[in-house]
Specification:
About 7% of the residues have low confidence. A 3-stranded mixed β-sheet has the order 1-2-3. It has 2 domains: 73 residues, Histidine-containing Protein, Chain: A (2-Layer Sandwich), CATH 3.30.1340; 79 residues, 2-Layer Sandwich (Histidine-containing Protein, Chain: A), CATH 3.30.1340.30. It is α/β, with parallel strands linked by helices and 183 residues long.
């Protein structure tokens, strides 16, 4: 019984401590998750957005990032309107591309590119005392999306590091800027 408790307690402590690095409150993280679920549900139930669309939703501090692919401009615009209509959404960044869905190779490439950018951010140490785990990195078809609560200096350095990773064609910043004193 003791052998089971120690790993379980260790895992629980690790999960609790990982939240300490966040610049978002627990309430904000909960709100973001709730918004994300409601946007996904709205997209899933929508007439005009079908299985040929591959739309990914990310939320940070009530800012919704839509990305992926859809075959029509109408579906892209509808997705943006539906996301904006969800309660507690402050802003929608609609980066959905009008084109056919990426195949499995493209999706695997997205994950690999995100991993390479995250690794570069950890290794790059953009600003003394900066913690790269505070940034959400998402990739789609060579475009890297960066989300987080950063100072302007951190955002500039992080963006430059991401731009210099091989395979990155474009960087989209979806940051909430904070004062250096609050960092």
């Amino acid at each position: 019984m003791l052998k089971i408790r120690i790993p379980l307690i260790s895992l629980l402590c690790l999960l609790l401590l990982s939240g300490c690095l966040e610049r978002r409150s627990t309430g904000a993280m909960f709100d973001d998750q709730n918004i994300e679920y409601r946007v996904i549900a709205a997209l899933y139930d929508a007439e005009g957005i079908d299985s040929t669309s591959h739309i990914k939703v990310e939320v940070w501090e009530s800012v919704v990032l839509l990305m992926g692919e859809t075959p029509t401009q109408q579906a892209k615009e509808l997705a943006g309107r539906l996301a904006a209509d969800v309660d507690r959404v402050d802003r929608v960044v609609n980066e959905i591309e009008v084109r056919p869905e990426l195949g499995l190779g493209g999706k695997l490439g997205n994950s690999w590119l995100s991993t390479r950018v995250k690794t570069a951010l950890i290794a790059g140490n953009p600003v003394p005392g900066f913690d790269a785990t505070r940034i959400k990195v998402i990739s789609s078809a060579g475009t890297v999306y960066l989300m987080g609560n950063l100072t302007e200096a951190e955002a500039d350095e992080v963006t430059e590091i991401a731009r210099n990773v091989g395979g990155v064609e474009k960087v989209v910043k979806v940051f909430n800027y904070i004062d250096a004193d609050k960092g």
